[in-house]
Amino acid sequence: MKNFITVGTRIAGAALFACAAAGPVQAATCEFRPNAPDQHLVVRGDTLWDISGKFLEHPWCWPQVWGMNRDEIRNPHWIYPGQIVYFDRKTGRLTLNKPGSDDADGIAGTTRLSPQIRTEGLGVDAVQSIPSGVIEPFLSMPLIVETNELEAAPRIAAAEEGHVYIGKDDKVYVRGALNGGTSFQVFRPGNALRDPDTGRLLAYEAVYLGTAKLRTEAKPGVDVHTFTVSSSKQEMGVGDRLLPAPPTPIRNYVPHPPERPVAARVLSSYSGVTYAGQNQVVSINRGSLDGLDVGAVLQLYHFGKTIADPGGSKGLFGLGKTMIKLPDEQVGTLFIFRVFKHVSYGLIMQTTQPVEVGDVAKSPE
User: Fold this and answer.
1) Which of 331, 326, 327, 335 shows the shortest CA–CA distance to 355?
2) How do the domains of the chain map onto residue ranges?
3) Which of 154, 211, 212, 330 has the fewest CB neighbours in a 10 Å radius?
4) Which CATH architecture does the domain made up of 263-362 adopt?
5) Are 337 and 138 in contact (CB under 8 A)?
6) CB 59 within 8 A of CB 98
7) How far is the CA of 171 from the CAs of 109, 209, 242, 296, 364, in angstroms?
8) 85 φ, ψ to 5°?
9) pLDDT tens digits, 156-199
10) Is pTM beyond 0.70 here?
């Protein structure tokens, strides 16, 4: 089946699929696999990461071999099931245009339509970057609450008479500034996240409880707003906090290195396990203020320990031991999908060993 796109989208797509003419199209680390196939038929269920891994040693190099700039990474034009990704060995690039063909559009299997055709459905069936089902729960709820947000967030001040625990369809009374909001998520502050290097409090993990909708705003002489609990994941109680429901999360991200060097440490495993493996979520102590954005890729390393050198000098009068620092050992790749000011959440894409709190996450080398 052909993919129908408007003229404007066609131009954007052509820009994505065209590689830069001058200079090498990939960095030294962006090498094609020795056994890379000549082509791959895109099928439903494929992810951008999976497809990249069929051709490239490092799947996060995808944008470089397609010649994408930063704007195209933030707002890409996707590929769809039924299309074929070709490896043009002569030019050393990936393309949707069969090598040697003269497709002027540069996008195989597309039909040009007039601009007035609707475009709101564009991208719905597009190939996603990573398995969406794994991270979906993390996209629609607050994971991190900055310390200053706790002080300003509205709170449940009272429940209906006789209600100790609050659940779906219950009425609650909320005190605090709503700032025009009507739909809120209810949370309870969880674990404190501290920087493992400095000990500084970065934020709190939020325990997501459910949602609440404004029923009646406080009138003159009344101190509280009346809300109804729309959904309940866990029982709510007096003192729990409300945050405005976030906008629809961005899912059209593309894997790419951070815009500037990042050196981070793993703060926690969201599942609460000691060791995290592939397709599990961890948090790190770097965020948007450190140059991270959605889609950034980091390499994971076990933090090199400092140990005593059994054959080293024992110091003055034979006392003490010589300590040596072991190198960090690479164990996996982390795909950042949710970014806050000081903390980010990432999905472990590949790992040779379990990832644990304290491990290093830094820009690809």
Assistant:
1) 331
2) 3-128, 142-244, 263-362
3) 330
4) Beta Barrel (2.40)
5) yes
6) no
7) 54, 15, 14, 42, 50
8) -95, 125
9) 999 987 677 888 999 999 999 999 999 999 988 888 888 888 88
10) no
